[in-house]
Amino acid sequence: xxxxxxTSFRYICKKFGADMVYTEFVSSDALxxxxxxxxxxxxxxxxxxxxxxxxxxxxxxxxxxxxxKVERAHPDVIDINFGCPVKKIAGRGAGSGMxxxxxxxxxxxxxVVQAVHTPVTVxxxxxxxxxxKIIVELAERLQDAGIRALTIHGRTRAQMYKGxxxxxxxxxxxxxxRMHIPIIGNGDIRTPQDALxxxxxxxxxxxxxxxxxxGHPWIFREIRHFLETGEELPPMSVADRVxxxxxxxxxxxxxxxxxxxxxxMRRHLACYFKGLDNFKETRLKLVTLTDIDxxxxxxxxxxxNWQ
Length: 307
Prior knowledge:
Blueprint: H1 7-15, E1 21-22, E2 26-27, H2 28-32, H3 36-40, E3 51-56, H4 60-71, E4 77-82, H5 87-90, H6 102-115, E5 120-125, H7 135-144, E6 149-153, H8 167-174, E7 183-186, H9 192-202, E8 206-208, H10 219-229, H11 238-256, H12 258-269, H13 280-286, H14 292-305
Parallel strand pairs: 1-3, 2-3, 3-4, 4-5, 5-6, 6-7, 7-8
Helix pairs in contact: 1-11, 4-6, 6-7, 7-8, 9-10, 11-12, 11-14
């Protein structure tokens, strides 16, 4: 979710009922070198809480030093990302690349836990590939290292985001009598029914939603309503999506300034209107316009011409 879960998007997700949000993951190597773009990702606001700052890396010293630096930003949790499958991350041993070195993963986790007072959590995958699904034993070891919760994505690193997430092993971790920390399931939660199935069939303590929230942050409200009432909410109207886009755009500009705020919002704007007929020309405007007034006029045009 890099370049997606920035402050303004987290603001929107919280408004739609997300119980907890996480920052984009931050490189521990960059933090210890005080890289400005990475330091800016540590900025969090009270309206986001509870909020976790997520770090990744493969060097123990850098991970410890960056965790100490992150703690100064006062997040509610420090989350260690051992799950990212992207080649440039995993290929150098960070993210889910750490699944090939479980001893090192556990040692980094233990040292980070010992170095900070903030609760530490971990996000990881089932294993490196289909022949090394080590998550059940690994979960016990991470718990013993002192983490306060564990999020498991139901795929191996080799799968990337392909195929279906295997929730059976997530359930095996949750139902392991040795486990006592919260287990959060992740992967293929796209509908309220998916969330209900995760809770009822596998017994997880929570579900984490990543890609399904991009362009659809109201998924949190849909899930919460379904779990509470057993009923589905009607689809978001075009007018409601326009209001959402305006709110998100305003928050992005407020936090980042006009130029950057507009530029970094464009990846979101078009996604809010997926599925509209004859939308190609208008979509092109949303992803290319730089003038605020023109953007707002385009959003008004959408509301007037698509119902």
